């Protein structure tokens, strides 16, 4: 089993340049949702992002938020019936959802509340949890491949590296995901680009 070392992680972060530095700054400063609108917007962003490139998801998110602000059906700007309905439901129930979230006494309960949201699944709940400031790794395809190569979970991989490099596990997750998405790390082989 091949482990990513702290030195390799730092080299990957350097290879990502400004984008990596921005990801670290963003991830290290995330706070829980302060308002119901914050809660809903993060959930909606994660729904838009599910199964899509971030650049495409951002456009869909912006159009969906515009439709909500204008009081028009989200389906008019986002033709995915299930996701459009989920977006409208979360927006309509955002005050209650934030209250329920805040009432959860543990991180585990909060994560289980997130998976109960429409169109948030057992993997995407971790994406939303990270965006709400929880120190978790999302076991998406890239992170899971890297973790499997090490014989552990995505969470264990990120926690190990977090201790070694002085970042949150959620931040390590973001950096590793970005490195895989940008071709700096080949998640299938574990090869790190020079």
Task: Describe the protein in words.
With 194 residues, this protein is mainly alpha-helical. Helix content is 66%, strand content 0%. It contains 10 helices and no strands. The chain has helices at residues 6-28, 36-49, 54-70, 81-92, 94-103, 107-115, 124-131, 141-150, 154-165, 169-181. The two termini are 21 Å apart.
The helical percent reads 55-70%
The secondary-structure element order is HHHHHHHHHH
Structural class label: mainly alpha
The fraction of residues assigned to DSSP E strands is under 5%
User: Which residue ranges are poorly predicted, with pLDDT under 50 across at least 5 consecutive positions?
Assistant: none
Chain-averaged pLDDT: 96
* Quaternary status: single chain
Main beta-sheet strand count, sense and barrel state: none
Computed over alpha carbons, the radius of gyration is: 17 Å
Silhouette: globular
**Count the helices. How many?**
10
Distance between the termini: 21 Å
Q: How many strand units?
A: 0
